[in-house]
User: Fold this.
Amino acid sequence: MKVIEVQNLCKKYIIDSYKSKVSAQTQKKSWNLFLNRKNKEQFYALKDVSFDVKEGEVLGIIGKNGSGKSTVLKVLSKITTPTSGTIVTRGRIASLLEVGTGFHEELTGKENIFLNGAILGMKSHEIKKQFDEIIDFSGVEKFLNVPIKRYSSGMKLRLAFAIAANLEPEILIIDEVLAVGDVEFQKKCIKQMGSLKETGRTIIFVSHNMSAIKALCNRALCLSKGTVVASGNVNDVVDKYYLKKGISNLYSIAFSGENSLENDFVKLISITARDKNGYAKSSFAIQEDVIVDVEYLVKRNDRSISIVLSALSKDGTLIFKVLDCSVIRWGEKRESGLYVSSCTIPKNFFNDISIDVGLEVFVEGEMRLSSIDTISLVLADEVNDKDSRGGVMLDWPDSYLRPKLYWNIRKLD
Amino acid sequence: MRETNNIFLSIRELVKYKDVYFYLAWRDILVRYKQSVLGVVWILLRPLLLALIFSFIFGRVAGLPSGGVPYAVLSLSGLLVWQFFSDSFMHGSMAFLNNVELVTKVYFPRIIIPASILLCSTLDFLIFFSFLLFAFWAFWGICFSLKILFIPLFFAWLFIFVLSVNILFSSLIVKYRDFKHLVPFVIQLGMYVTPVGYSSLIFKTKWRYILSLNPLSSIIDCFRWSILGQGVFVHGIIISSIVTVLLFIGGLYYLKKTEQYFADVI
Assistant:
């Protein structure tokens, strides 16, 4: 049975009313806004979104920031009304768009459990029934009678999620709640959601964490600029999402026709990025090896040849340049024939950035050949504990690299 | 689940979310008196000080009539109503703005937020009211008549009036922050145009018609009638009731019309 049916959902925002948030602070500006009403600019946060969810199904919604994911959830949970389109829901919905909504700093942990539970739609007797479980799950038992302003942010989060995890609605809507908290906690949350799934709950789940999406969901929906670009089996949608995420989806260039790149000594055939299973793609997790294959034909025997790869950030900074003559020394003549030079960019090396990989060929005593086109790769941060984070869940600084270096910790006393 | 424009569905929804209503009120009550040493004493201290000032300035210096009761008694009975209004209006008009995360992150009928603030002030009212009854009897030897049984009715009127004003202001403030600046002004000025520190008996009938456009003045008259046995102006009560009903319908209508966009605008 379909428990949620969404048809042709549109949500239009008027940019002015967005701005009024800021500019209404000064009376004069808001008066101007009032007068300029006719010059409103329209913006569709959702355009013709249709999908349905069957009972007991777990639907993941993915997409870039600003693609409309949260708007879908807000509309589904009745926080805002759609401009047009219909939504039919069957069953009690609880939505968790934020952990700890309505928490009050001055109140104790215990008081907040009751308050937050009520806000999330639990009845008093339900909260009382689940009370012990909530405390167990949160692990803040000792601090129950302490105002939560004295809690660490991790404790607050655990308490908040514990309340939400013990909700018993028929349909549960969850927004990016796993983005916060340490890895241990995230695992606990995913496990809890998994057991909710087993009890036959219908769940709609938004996340940037693709492994969580893959682990929990049966189906997924990928949004981009307010429209559904992919839906169906979760693995297919996630793969499509990875492809989409790149600024350009070029993970391979074939040098032929107009594009051909050759001189008397060498002819380039192609450059391709792939993972270690040989699957060509442009989006990689940062915990994954990126292998760049350059295929070329050496026409003569009497020159030394080197393939050169360079990695550029999107702002044009050269991050590194590498030559394959670190393997076949410069000065050694290359025999003619078909070659592939494969360069492995190790896992846990780049930060979660987009890079362009450029290609050049050095030929002894000749002008170098360089490709104008570059391939573009996106490195995504799939938060898990196999990377250099080591459990640290802060936003990683915007560096180009996030290498997993060799540390040695000695205790001196 | 379809749109709930139907009034019966709306009421049913309110019943469904009644727990949220009580918990929010409970939160406000707890928060108000946490970490305050004097706690409940504050509810009494402020009006007592004001009554002292009123009796001195209006009673002694200006020599205004008090309708046969001690001047402090007259002003305290006015302040009972005024205190309820000014406290709930001050917090209630900011109901949505101070609870942005509730508005943008969870759904329940929006009216619950301003209404829960009134529940919190009701507790203060009850404490102050019982204190007054005791003090009037113990210090001033005032005997109450059966008219005092009407108090719940008048309080209900007061409650509905303040609720309407709060709904209207809090929803207007969501979109037009200008009303925020109006609130302290209304409270300040309101105390002078409402017979709080003086008796409405000092006005000629013509003026009392105008005065009753402010429902609070008739409500205070009614309170004084039922506690102190002073006279009431029936025409004024009718006018004030009509104003209250209009405000209530207007407030509800505006809230209903705009609440679905609160999360986008706030």
User: Anything to note?
Assistant: The CA atoms of residues 14 and 42 of chain A lie 5 Å apart. The longest helix of chain A spans residues 183-198. Chain A has nine helices and 19 strands.
